[in-house]
């Protein structure tokens, strides 16, 4: 495995609020969206954070037998699709569930016509899409911050050719 590097703001070793089950959360560094009221504004600067080999992240995930999945948050994960697609490919082989947050919508991601973005997207199980909209903030939503964001079943959506949400 070529040891690609990922620019991250940080990780959470075990989380129960960033997706189903016990999850390892990777906060990518760099975000073009700058949503007002963003929960992680420190992740916006593309030059900040730290470069970490994906092999390090992989070994951290594999070292914890309680981890059922990995959540890609940010920042904007789809701004670093190459290293994340490789990391996710290996994690999926190990049976991990993959969830990603993106300020881009499902439709915008598909319209990018970027093979690395599509490679990352098609390996995800769940996508929370769309920017955080402060006026639509809703703390009662599961795994989302605002009502415009969708909880998408990626595999069912790809198979159907349309967005299939998880209720």
SSE diagram, text form:
Layout: E1 5-15, E2 23-28, E3 50-53, H1 54-62, E4 69-73, H2 81-93, E5 97-101, H3 106-111, H4 115-123, E6 126-129, E7 150-153, H5 154-160
Parallel strand pairs: 2-4, 4-5, 5-6
Antiparallel strand pairs: 1-2, 1-3, 6-7
Structure, described:
By secondary structure, the protein is of the alpha/beta class. 26% of the residues lie in helices and 23% in strands. It contains five helices and seven strands; from the N terminus they run E-E-E-H-E-H-E-H-H-E-E-H. It has a seven-stranded mixed β-sheet. Strand 1 (5-15) and strand 2 form a beta hairpin. Helix 2 runs parallel beside helix 4 (115-123). The chain is globular and about 40 Å long. The model has no long low-confidence stretch (mean pLDDT 95).
Short description:
The protein is of the alpha/beta class and 167 residues long. It contains five helices and seven strands; from the N terminus they run βββαβαβααββα.
Descriptive tags:
globular; alpha/beta; 7-stranded mixed sheet
The major sheet is characterized as: 7 strands, mixed
SSE run: EEEHEHEHHEEH
Let me know the average pLDDT: 95
Number of helices: 5
- Tally the beta strands: 7
Would you tell me the structural class of the helices and strands? alpha/beta
The shape is: globular
What is the rounded Rg? 15 Å
Portion in helices? 25-40%
Q: Main sheet: which strands, in order across?
A: 3-1-2-4-5-6-7
Unreliable spans: none
What percentage of amino acids are in beta strands? 15-25%
End-to-end Cα distance, whole Å, is: 37 Å
């Amino acid at each position: 495995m070529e040891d690609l590097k990922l620019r991250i703001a940080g990780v959470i070793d075990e989380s129960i609020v960033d997706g189903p089950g016990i999850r390892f959360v990777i906060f990518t560094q760099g975000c073009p969206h700058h949503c007002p009221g963003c929960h992680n504004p420190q992740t916006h600067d593309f030059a900040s954070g730290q470069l970490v080999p994906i092999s390090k992240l992989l070994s951290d995930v594999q070292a914890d037998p309680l981890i059922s999945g990995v959540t890609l948050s940010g920042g904007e994960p789809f701004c670093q699709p190459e290293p994340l697609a490789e990391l996710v490919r290996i994690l999926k082989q190990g049976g991990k569930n993959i969830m990603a947050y993106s300020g881009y919508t499902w439709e915008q991601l598909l319209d990018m016509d970027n093979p690395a973005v599509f490679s990352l997207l098609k390996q995800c199980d769940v996508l929370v899409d769309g920017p955080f909209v402060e006026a639509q903030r809703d703390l009662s939503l599961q795994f989302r911050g605002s009502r415009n964001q969708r909880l998408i079943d990626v595999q069912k959506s790809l198979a159907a050719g349309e967005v299939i949400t998880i209720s």
